[in-house]
Amino acid sequence: MPAINAPVIVLVHGAFADSASWAPVTRLLLDAGYDVRVPPVPNRSLSGDAAYIRRFAEQIDGPVLLAGHSYGGAVITVAGVADNVAGLVYVSGYALAEGESLGQLQGGFPDSDLAANLVYEPYTLPDGTDGTDVSVKIDAFPEIFAAGVPLATAQVLAVSQRPLSAIAFGEPASVAAWKTKPAWGIVSSADRTINPDVERYGYERAGLRAVTEIDAPHLVMHARPAEVARVITDAVAAL
């Protein structure tokens, strides 16, 4: 059982996913007695998404551990400067530097299989102009995003994915919380959505306390939930 003063665990989903992407890990953490929250991320812009998650964390009474998957890693990098955030866990995620965008970090490494399997569709911005939503081709989703996950589950996730606004790819991180907060990381070594070297490079640069390599696809929370939960609970114990 967690300590009485253990931080609340806030699980932050990424692009092409929603809170259900964390479901297997959420179940394990709840069963072990941890206090968990899994908020929806708008996936509209890095600054807006980070502001939303920061405010969400700040409304929790007590310390918080933020765990971010994929694009959620970029979100917690910015949101994690909230005073009550005690630590960060990156799960197959982007550990951006201050002033760096997703596109810039990815641009230093060979493309993953994701780039050729994206769909771009217009959506209406609040001012009436068009924005662009990015999602994964439904037929490619099980193999590219959720390889190793049971096909029946991957197909459901494919048709319920939450797109990411193209704006988020080019928006620089305004801060980097890992500079002042302890952080841990998981690399999905069989990742076909993000080049695993992007994850390794970001984590090494950030000087994470510990990095765990898991032979798993990008959606590691479904493929290897017990190992992901263990990294998170180890971080809680360290805090």
Automatic annotation (TrEMBL):
UniProt keywords, alphabetically: Hydrolase
Listed GO MF terms: hydrolase activity
Cited Pfam families: Abhydrolase_6
The AB hydrolase-1 domain, residue ranges: 9-230
Record's protein name: Alpha/beta hydrolase
Organism of origin: Paractinoplanes lichenicola
Organism taxonomic ancestry: Bacteria, Bacillati, Actinomycetota, Actinomycetes, Micromonosporales
